[in-house]
Design a protein that fits this description.
- There is one protein chain.
- With about 90 residues, the protein is an alpha+beta fold.
- It contains three helices and four strands.
- Strands 2-3-1-4 form a four-stranded antiparallel beta sheet.
- A hairpin with a 2-residue loop joins strand 2 and strand 3.
- It is globular.
- It starts with a strand and ends with a helix.
- The model has no long low-confidence stretch (mean pLDDT about 90).
Length: about 90
Amino acid sequence: MNRVIITVVGKDTVGIIAKVCTYLADNHINILDISQTIVQDYFNMMMIVDADKSDKALAEVITDLDEIGNGIGVVIKCQREEIFDKMHRI
């Protein structure tokens, strides 16, 4: 399984989840787990996804999600699960 961690952070606005999830579905990336919160006016979402069936390389997905984030005013970060785990190990 090609598990990837996606985080989305920024000022809350209509359509953030829809834009990100539509992109993932269009590129055959399956959402395994998702958590989102809104604290006052700030949106935070973390997703674990499986990119095994995607035709796109991870670098292209990262670029695409970065562009989507810029378009809707949020920051979207995307990285392989094993790298995320090593960076956040206590």
